[in-house]
Amino acid sequence: MASLCYSTIRGHQALKSEAGASDATVAMSRSSVGMSRYFFDLRDESGSLQEDPEGQEFSDLASAEENAMASAKEILAEELLHGRPLRTGLTFEIFDENRNLVLRFPFALAAEKAGAPP
After folding, report:
1. 57 with 29: CB under 8 angstroms?
2. Of 9, 11, 16, 51, which has the maximum CB count within 10 A?
């Protein structure tokens, strides 16, 4: 199974398959007053963790969770569109600016739950 890695493209954080598949983008917010930075580390089915080196700023944890839902849906959709199996075993581990774990967001939840389109 191809591993995923973080890369920066046109101001968006993206997950990119090392196998050369197209990008599944994760929208980034710009710095603002009163915003907190959250890091969206990605844990795969084997337990390997890829750290998010940049993070994203959100007004609160609920907004970060909404972004995790939309991002997971987009990544799952991209994988399906390219003929790959649905990887519901992926999980975003979301850390605050002090690198304290504040939320685990399993992709399986995004596959099962209705939410805003990516």
Report:
1. yes
2. 16
Q: What pairs with residue 15 in β-bridges?
A: 6, 24
- Please give the structure tokens belonging to residue 10: 């046109």
**DSSP type of residue 21:** P
pTM, two decimals, is 0.70
Largest interatomic CA distance in the chain:
42
Length of the chain: 118
Per the listing, tokens 């399906």 go with 80
Predicted confidence (pLDDT) per residue in 76-85, tens digit: 999 999 999 9
* Residue 93 to residue 102: CA distance in whole angstroms: 8
Question: pLDDT digit string (tens) for 42-54?
Answer: 999 999 999 999 9
